[in-house]
Write a structure and sequence with these properties.
Layout (H helix, E strand, L loop, with lengths): L1 H18 L22 E4 L15 E10 L5 E12 L1 H6 L1 E6 L2 E7 L8 E3 L4 E9 L13 E11 L2
Antiparallel strand pairs: 1-2, 2-7, 3-6, 3-8, 4-5, 4-7
C-alpha cells in the first residue's frame, strides 16, 4: 500500500508540474487611439444683405443668390427661415418668395411663411440657393416707398 500511495503522490506531483508549466505568449499594442465627435457648422456668402432689393415694383420678381457652406465635418441638413425685424408689416405680408437649389423648389409661397424643405449638404460643400422675391401686381399705392428689413436664418443639423 505504501508503494501505491507513493505512486499516486508521484503521479499527482508530475501532473501538477505539467499544469504549472510555462506557455509562450505575446501581446500587441495599438496605442494613441483618439475618438472625436463630429462638428456641424454652416456659413453663408454673403454674410449680410443677401436678398436686399432697392426698388421692387408690383408684378415684378427679383432673384438673388445665397451660397450656403458646410464648414463642419459631417453631412448637414439645412432649413432656411426668416423673421421681419423692421419696416412696414403690410409690405412684408405682400411679398412672395420662391427658393430653389439646383432647380429644385425648396419653398414657394408668402415671405411670411418661409420655411424651406431640408437640403442636405456634404462636408466642405457649397450649395447655391436662389431667392426669387416678388411683389404681386395687385399691390396698391399704399405700399409705394415702404420697406421691410428681415433676417434669414440658416439652421443646420447633422443628417440622420
Amino acid at each position: 500500500m505504501k508503494k501505491f500511495v507513493m505512486f499516486v503522490l508521484t503521479s499527482l506531483a508530475i501532473l501538477t508540474a505539467g499544469a504549472a508549466g510555462a506557455y509562450f505568449t505575446s501581446q500587441a499594442q495599438v496605442a494613441e487611439n483618439t475618438i472625436k465627435a463630429g462638428t456641424v457648422a454652416v456659413s453663408t456668402e454673403p454674410t449680410s444683405a443677401a436678398i436686399s432689393i432697392d426698388a421692387l415694383a408690383p408684378g415684378a420678381t427679383t432673384s438673388k443668390t445665397l451660397t450656403v457652406v458646410n464648414d463642419g465635418n459631417m453631412p448637414e441638413s439645412i432649413v432656411v427661415t426668416a423673421a421681419k425685424k423692421a419696416g412696414t408689416t403690410a409690405f412684408y405680408e405682400a411679398l412672395t418668395l420662391r427658393v430653389t437649389a439646383d432647380g429644385v423648389a425648396l419653398y414657394d409661397g408668402p415671405m411670411t411663411g418661409l420655411r424651406t424643405t431640408p437640403l442636405n449638404i456634404t462636408p466642405g460643400s457649397r450649395s447655391q440657393l436662389q431667392f426669387a422675391v416678388g411683389l404681386p401686381a395687385a399691390a396698391g399705392n399704399d405700399l409705394a416707398g415702404t420697406y421691410t428689413k428681415l433676417t434669414l436664418y440658416i439652421d443646420a443639423e447633422q443628417v440622420h
